[in-house]
Specification:
The chain is of the alpha+beta class and 202 residues long. It has 5 helices and 5 strands. One of its GO terms (biological process) is nucleotide metabolic process.
């Protein structure tokens, strides 16, 4: 094994810790007759989501569906920097199961609209790195949704290695709680719109 591809087991993975702390409340599949209820339940309620101390460091969860989670990056490049990841420990995109790919494909547009709406920024990057040479810091597959406001902070390192500690400021708990709460509210609205569009097609 190449040393640049070393990765740690799920029991030490911070993203797996978040997944364990915020389980999906249903055993049923996401897709099927119960779409409306299951989609709505994929966005955690405030009482559950505000318990940011469930993990160390704190987690600001926006989505916790059967196969996918979304939470704020604790070292954001800009406000609203969101991570979207698989619930199960997969290292790279090539390791993802079909059901995980399908669910991430469903949620990414809704989450992108959510980030854009909450931050008021219409331009954004969706970045996904695979392996240490590609600047993947946490070896658990994830997508970055990064708003691109008109004025971006100065980045010391101009490469994609900027996704690491030392380049960005920590996310403070109060800021994270507010941002994640706003995103959950907007995401619930996006889910409702998606269900209305689906009903209109039937």
């Amino acid at each position: 094994m190449n040393e640049t591809d070393l990765h740690y087991p799920p029991d030490t993975c911070p993203f797996c810790s978040i997944a364990a702390a915020f389980p999906f409340p249903e055993s049923a599949r996401l897709w099927g007759s119960g779409d409306k209820e299951l989609l709505a339940r994929s966005v955690p309620g405030e009482e559950e989501a505000d318990k940011v101390e469930r993990t160390e460091p704190s987690s600001f969860v926006v989505l916790r569906s059967r196969h996918v989670l979304a939470f704020l990056d604790i070292l954001p490049m800009v406000g609203g920097h969101l991570l979207v990841t698989t619930r199960q420990h997969q290292v790279k995109v090539a390791d993802m199961q079909a059901v995980e790919s399908r669910e991430i494909g469903f949620w990414l547009p809704l989450l992108a609209r959510t980030v854009s709406h909450v931050t008021g920024v219409s331009d954004y990057n969706i970045v996904q790195n695979n392996g240490a040479r590609a600047a993947q810091v946490v070896p658990h597959v994830h997508f970055h949704i990064i708003p691109r406001p008109a004025s971006m902070p100065e980045i010391k390192n101009k490469s994609w290695a900027m996704f690491g500690r030392g380049q960005r400021d920590d996310l403070h708990d109060e800021d994270g709680k507010k941002m994640a709460g706003d995103m959950r509210r907007v995401l619930r609205e996006e889910v409702e719109k998606e269900l209305e569009k689906k009903a209109a097609r039937l």
